[in-house]
Design brief:
The complex is a heterodimer. By secondary structure, chain A is an alpha+beta fold. Chain A contains five helices and nine strands. Chain A folds into two domains: about 110 residues, no CATH class; about 110 residues, PAS domain (Beta-Lactamase, 2-Layer Sandwich). The relative contact order of chain A is 0.09. The chains are: A alpha+beta, B mainly alpha.
């Protein structure tokens, strides 16, 4: 029976040595298997290499000096495996988050390209009337410039007049006035020139269902000096 | 009747952390190879027989314990090879 135990110990030692080698040197090519995952898993397998060698020496009648330390090695095995698996799970979650963030950046870039390609003006106006974004079309039509910090400069200043009634209005009024479809407005510049525009706007709902400002779009309806 | 407290601790750790390991493995979007179940089953087998040998049939159960380690060693090696192969296949799959 003792020969069977020695043979089993030899097979066990061989198997765990191969496992250490695979853990350290195999190509996993996965973000889940980081260097620390490899090292801790190899260490866990190494614990049973030690146990196997110790058993081989003991059951072959050569030496039992390592027998005392076997218990310490064995008790570390399961926690080490649990650490490896939980670390792989965390790595997967981090990888998913990174992929999601990358996808969102790509979608954001695509949307910005579309918005900047549109010949008309597109503005994002906050609930207080502050313009937080202006596309290239808005810059060309109304001299608005948007920087990466989210602030928009309006230069030179103009006033908006309802083309039909002649009453003065503002972007804040447009943004807080609910949905607007193809409203004709005239931009009057300080030098006396006028730009005929057609405005549309769509309110955005913020958290809690309250109005979170509007997306305002406009295009030139005509231009006269 | 001779068993060591650490043997009981090993078994308790496997029973307590085993479900945690299984749940975490299932949440990782990778199928656990069959060798993984064999490896952990063989470890459980060995932990049970190392305690049982202190009560009855010491020689036979000691052999069972060491056979369990032999199976576990080989199964862990196969499991890692299967994991590596499956992960490489996932990496090469067109997205």
């Amino acid at each position: 029976m003792n020969n069977g135990v020695v043979l089993a110990d030899a097979i066990s030692t061989f198997g765990f040595i191969v496992a250490v080698g695979i853990a350290l040197f195999a190509r996993f090519e996965s973000p889940l298997v980081t260097k620390s995952v490899r090292l801790v898993f190899a260490a866990a397998m190494g614990l049973y290499v030690f146990v196997g060698v110790s058993n081989l020496l003991e059951h072959s009648g050569i030496a039992a000096v390592f027998d005392t330390y076997e218990d310490f090695a064995e008790i570390l095995f399961i926690p080490a495996i649990a650490y490896v698996v939980s670390t792989m799970l965390q790595n997967q979650q981090l990888d998913t988050q990174a992929k999601t963030a990358r996808l969102m950046r790509q979608q954001n870039d695509l949307l910005l390209n579309i918005v900047d390609t549109v010949p008309g003006g597109i503005l994002v106006v906050g609930p207080t009337g502050t313009v937080t974004f202006a596309n290239d079309g808005a810059e060309q039509l109304l001299g608005m410039t948007s920087d990466s910090g989210g602030s928009v400069r309006i230069e030179p200043s103009w006033t908006l007049v309802d083309t039909q009634t002649g009453t003065t209005t503002s972007l804040a009024q447009i943004a807080s006035g609910g949905a607007l479809a193809r409203k004709p407005l005239t931009a009057r510049w300080p030098d006396g020139t006028q730009t005929e525009l057609v405005f549309s706007s769509t309110p955005m709902s913020a958290q809690g269902g309250e109005l979170g400002g509007s997306v305002v779009a406009f295009e030139a309806a005509g231009h006269r000096a | 009747m001779t068993y060591q407290p650490s043997e009981i601790a090993d078994l308790i750790l496997l029973i307590a952390l085993g479900p945690v390991i299984v749940v975490a493995l299932r949440r990782i979007s990778l199928d656990v190879p069959w060798a993984g179940f064999v490896a952990f089953g063989a470890m459980l087998w060995s932990y049970v027989f190392t305690i049982a040998e202190g009560f009855v049939l010491p020689d036979l159960f000691n052999l069972f314990e060491h056979l369990g380690y032999a199976v576990a060693g080989l199964a862990f090696a196969i499991m890692l090879a299967q994991f590596a192969s499956a992960m490489r296949a996932m990496g090469e799959r067109p997205r």
